[in-house]
Amino acid sequence: MDFTGHEGWLVGYIIGLVVVLVVVALVVPILVIAWRIGNQAGSILTRLQQAEKNTAGLAGLNETIDSTRSHRRPQAWPYQAGRLTWIRRSRTSG
């Protein structure tokens, strides 16, 4: 090609080629990483399903904790409100 008198076209082609090369240089690593993630997705999904199965029993843990917190002590206990009343009773009654 003869660009005599049309140097602007030559500069435009060079700039266009550089832009395309830069875009390719930026997109190719992104595609490579996406391909790796896609290959690992199956094993990750399997591991997450196994973890869900392993921790399924913990779902009732909050219910158990709430049940124990709402349980009231029997009134017959001598130890109430941080006082050791049973020690005083045993000393005075014996």
Gist?
This protein has 94 residues and is mainly alpha-helical. Helix content is 71%, strand content 4%.
Question: What this model shows, in words?
Answer:
With 94 residues, this protein is mainly α. The protein contains three helices and two strands. It has a two-stranded antiparallel sheet. The chain is rod-shaped. The N and C termini lie far apart (120 Å).
What is the mean predicted local confidence, pLDDT? 78
Shape: rod-shaped
Tell me the distance between the termini: 120 Å
Largest sheet: 2 strands, antiparallel
Within the largest sheet, what's the order of strands? Answer: 1-2
Low-confidence stretches: none
SS elements, strand count = 2
DSSP helix count? 3
Compute the CA-based radius of gyration: 38 Å
Strand/helix succession: HHEEH
- Strand % is under 5%
Broad structural category: mainly alpha
Question: In terms of quaternary structure, what is this?
Answer: single chain
**Helix content bin:** over 70%
Name a few traits of the molecule:
about 90 residues, mainly alpha, two-stranded antiparallel ribbon, 3 helices, rod-shaped
What is the topology?
Elements: H1 7-54, H2 61-70, E1 79-80, E2 83-84, H3 85-93
Antiparallel strand pairs: 1-2
